[in-house]
Amino acid sequence: MKFLITGGAGYIGSTICSALEDVGHTPIILDSLVTGRKEFTQNRIFYHADIANTAVVEQIFKDHPDIQATIHCAALIVVPESTEHPYEYYRENVNKSLELFHTLQRLGYKRVVFSSSAAIYDVVPGFMVNESSPLNPSSPYARTKSMMEMILQDFCAAYGMKGIALRYFNPIGADPKMRSGIHVKNPTHVLGKLVETARGVQKEFVLTGVDWPTRDGSGIRDYIHVWDLAQAHVQAVQDFDAVFQRAGNPENGYLIINLGTGKGVTVIELVEAFERVYGTKINKTQAPPRPGDIAGSYANADTAKRLIGWEAKLSIDEGIRDALKWGDLRTSLLDFSK
What does the pLDDT look like over 142-187, one tens digit per residue? Predict the structure, then answer.
């Protein structure tokens, strides 16, 4: 089967493409390459364009009328950057996604899987959240994800679309076959920064926020291997209609599913795991929280198991090992001179 992957040249999107190919499906990539990597599009069907470029989206479906669903990953994703540049985040993540959804609806391609985020959850006692837990997006980035969930839900109710919002927790690692991984020159995710510190690219790892009401004062997260995350998308799209049947075919045609391990790990615990896998201590220091940071949460992942038959299988140690391996390879695989 064919699936359209917006943002398919990015970290998560490219990994989803590999996971789809591994089980015989064909990803069709739509990416502007503003942050994505052309290297991740090699030997794949690729359209270099913005998601709001209606003419190109129409051409994609004209060229590939047998596309079964769209996986919408394209977005700007850096929380501190979103607090400095909210206009760009609302324009790219909300305005352009709105146009994409409108085009999909108009063309009759009404199955959508949306890359949402656990960043939209409020902090709750015990830190475990399920799909009905209270929301409180605390950054422009998180608010764009919350807005797009509302828009998709409204489109499903009004236009007969079917949407699945997958709320990602904290992706780590790389494709175990090293086809893709963290793709930006200066990683902003915690594990990317740990790898850069271990490789001597940055002099120390800065642990931001150590006064949260958690067991050790650092933020609590749910670190999920990006390959596990990709497998969840495969299971969601290749069995799309059956997922809704298992959910009782909700009248509004909309589902929310957490994607996490179900285990809360603090940032300090992640650093300790990293040093254990890496085999030595790294230089580190502490600093106040960044704009938009919160104490955090971890997933109740029961809905994912019930509706898409998925649960995380890979450990944090495996995620760290794959991230370290990719860190050694990425400068030779990706051209950062441009």
Answer: 999 999 999 999 999 999 999 999 999 999 999 999 999 999 888 8
Secondary structure (H, E, C), the chain: CEEEEECCCCHHHHHHHHHHHHCCCEEEEEECCCCCCHHHHCCCEEEECCCCCHHHHHHHHHHCCCEEEEEECCCCCCHHHHHHCHHHHHHHHHHHHHHHHHHHHHHCCCEEEEEEEHHHECCCCCCEECCCCCECCCCHHHHHHHHHHHHHHHHHHHHCCEEEEEEECEEECCCCCCCCCCCCCCCCCHHHHHHHHHCCCCCCEEEECCCCCCCCCCCEECEEEHHHHHHHHHHHHHCHHHHHHHCCCCCCCEEEEEECCCCCEEHHHHHHHHHHHHCCCCCEEEECCCCCCCCECEECCHHHHHHHCCCCCCCHHHHHHHHHHHHHHHHHHCCCCC
Which one of 89, 90, 109, 141 is the catalytic residue?
141
Q: Give all domains of the chain, ordered by start, each with its CATH number.
A: 2-184+216-263+293-333 (3.40.50.720)
298 is catalytic: no
pLDDT band at 336 (very low <50, low <70, confident <90, very high): confident
Q: Indicate whether this model's pTM tops 0.85.
A: yes
